[in-house]
Amino acid sequence: MEIESSETKGTIELLGNDKVKINLEEEPGGCWNVEPRFDEGGVIFELTERKEWKSIRIVSSERAYFYNSPDEKERRESYVIEGDILKVLELEGDWVKGEYCGSYGITTGWIKESDLCEINGR
Question: CA of 55: how far to CAs of 97, 99, 102, 108, 112, in Å?
Answer without folding.
Answer: 11, 11, 18, 15, 15
